[in-house]
Structures are given as structure tokens and as C-alpha cells.
Amino acid sequence: MAKRHLLTDDYAGLFLRLEELVLANSGEDEFEEIFKLIYAKLLDEIQYNSSRFHCCSSPKETYNAIAALLSEAIEHWPGVFEPDTRIKLTPEHLSICVEVLSTRAIFETGLEVMDGAFEYLTSHTSKGAKGQYFTPRHVVEFCVRVLNPQQGELVADPACGSGAFLVHAVRHVQSALPDSHKASHTQKANLRQYCSKYIWGFDFEQRATKVSKALMLLLGDGSSNIVRLNSLLKPQTQGSLMSYASDAPPTVTIEDVMRIAHPTFSGFDVILTNPPFAGEVRELELLREYELHHLMRTRRIERDALFLERCIELLKPGGRLAIVLPENKLGSEMWTHLRKWLISKTRVLAVVSLPRAVFMPHTSQKTSILFAQKRSNRDKPDMAEKTFFAISERGGKDSRGVPIYRPSLKDNGAAAWSTLDHDFENILKAYQTCKL
Asked: For the domain bounded by 123-433, which CATH number is listed?
């Protein structure tokens, strides 16, 4: 039986050690090989009580045992790896990694820690250079609590990354599902049914979608609604604008996917997202389909601004949006046209400014969360409309990005919302009591 071991503080060290072992000793892709091991170990913990993921009498026997476990995991949880996926490490290198990982109980630590472990692995290997920074989980929880998704509402994240917004939305709704208080087959079936119909994630990054599928899998939905595509593509856009997944046509859009699953699809009820900040879109073929391009009369627009327009377009009238944006989009003179357009399309419910340290140590980008509700075609801006504004002064991290915990809660294994020293709960209460 593997030793119970909370990874809240040392999972980064564990995965860094595995990366060093894989990189230094094999030359293989560290993300792919470590992820395969995690996948196999999760099945061992869940199905076999941690009895199979360990070193055998020889490296060759170890390789065969772990390879068999991985094949079972791929068959048991399809959609994350191709059926013919194999471990590329040599038996000797694999044995070293198995020895390190076998003493840790991953699944038992809970979803919050699994989420953090996967986030570390993905962000450390690929995300930062693209301006895609995973959202701290207490910030995610804050967004979910403000929008308050309900059973029967379509929830989406067009830049889902590791799936944090989706995971937290599911957990938020889960308590209201039938038999939510029971750890039963009925409860799992209810949860699986809900996720398979109402929870949708889209991202262009292959590694991030793998992580998102795995986390949704652990929630019990089978990871069926995580789709790799370019969320900025619209149905009317033609032609190839960048590299695409080999198994999908270059013009597949979110609308295409949704109308297959929901023939009467008219938009999402809730969108929660933190789109990539870095880079400008310059492909005129794509820009011409965006109102902001025509309003701003420019041949290039920052990616996050296009994501804002795209998210609003994907909402049904009355649908609700929470989106993390660079603060300049909501305050600088340069983006006045964007804000005027935003007010014409949505009722801005709230803007919450985040401390600069929230995304540290990855970036010091100053950000805000925009909460908005899409207007109907007949709904026009009203001067009497009110917007809630707040400035968070305690974001749960210090200036170096190190988590700041509430006294005595650092090591209890609870969720970041409960353990970190932040003021989002106070802001949430103020928002909920404010009559907008």
C-alpha cells in the first residue's frame, strides 16, 4: 500500500525530480512520459489499491508491468492517449521513475492537489512562453461563486487550459445534483450525465487539453467534452490560419461542435475563462470577422481582446461571463472603443482588480476580472445601470508569488479558497449584498 502523502507543498519537487530523471537519463519528452506514469498510477490507486505500480525484480519486468497498467488505463479512460501509446523510456530509466513515484499516493490527496500537480507539470514545460498562465484556484473559485452556475446551464471555457474553471463549476453544481450527499453509483451517474451534457472546454494547446481531460475524468465524466480547436475561429472564417490538430479540419469551430451535441444550440449560459494574454492576431482573414477590428481600424489586435468579443458572441442573451483580462483593457485610453463596444453588448456587472502578485512567479501582469451579462438585441444601455467595483488587497501570495496561508491552515490539505490568506470572500459578500 502506497504511503499517504499530501503533495500540497512538495508536489513541485516531486515532479521536478521526475523531470530531471527523465530528461537527464532518457532524452524523451518529459511531459509525455511523466503523464503516462501518472495515468497508470491513478488506475492502480483507484482500481487495484496501489498494488501494481512498483518496481519488480528486474527493470524489464517493471517495464512490462507498468506498460500493461498503462494499457489498461488507456482502455479504461479513453480519449486522453491514443490506444497504441507506449512508454518510450528504457526499462532502466522507467524503474528509476517508478521507484520515485511509487511511494506517493496521488489520488488520495484530493482533486485540489491533483489539479495543482498537473498545473505544475504543464506550466513548467510549455505554457509561460505563450502568455498562458494558469489561474490560481482561489481566483477560479471566486469567479465561479460570483456567476453561480446552476444545474441545467451550459458552461464553457473557450481557453480551458488545465480545466480549472470547469472543475470548479462542476463541484459547485454537484452539491445540487440528486443524491449529491451519497458516494454512490447513482450520484456518480448523475454527475457523469451532467458533465457529458453541460460542461464544455476548448483549447488549442494539446498538453493542456490532456490535463483537462484527465481532471474531468477524475471528476467522473469521462472527459468527453474537452475539444482541441482554435476558439477564435468563427463559422464564416475560411482557410487555414495556423497549425491544427491532425485529426480535425482547420475550420472546425465551437459552433460546429456544439450543434452536433445540441442541435438547437443558441449559446452558452455561463462562460468562465482566462484567455492567453500574449501576442497579436494579424491574420486579416480572421480579423475581418470581428467587430473590434472594424471599430479600432487596426490591422492587428491583441489576442485577449478578441477572446473577449468571442466569449460574448458565444453567450446566449442573458448569459453570464467571467473573464480575466489585463487591466489596460478596462482602464487605458487606448482601449476606449473596446469598452464602449462592451457596454453596448453587455451589462457590466462587476470589475474586480487583482493584486499584481496573484500570477507571480509566472508573470507580474496587472489583471482584473470582468463579470458581465449579455444583452438581448432589444436591450439597450441604461444610465441607471450600476456596476460593482472592487480592489483586492490580499491575493493570497507575496511579492514573489509564494502562497500566504491563514494561520494553522497551511498543512491541512484543504482547498486554496479555505487555506490562503485572501479577501475574495469579503468581496463576494459585498457583491452579493449590492443591489445592481
From this structure: 3.40.50.150
